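Fill in residues.
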């Protein structure tokens, strides 16, 4: 059974959109704390 490339691309995009939605929902909930922790970790790793 072959899936048409267009359909495959649509499924792929829909999957990525769903994943991005979940990640964004999590980020909206804990965004600031996670972002600050990430920045602190990055700075600590750099210096």
């Amino acid at each position: 059974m072959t899936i048409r490339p267009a359909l495959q691309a649509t499924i792929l995009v829909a999957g990525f959109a769903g994943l991005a939605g979940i990640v964004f929902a999590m980020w909206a909930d804990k965004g600031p704390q996670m972002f600050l922790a990430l920045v602190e970790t990055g700075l600590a790793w750099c210096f």
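The two ends are 54 Å apart (CA to CA).
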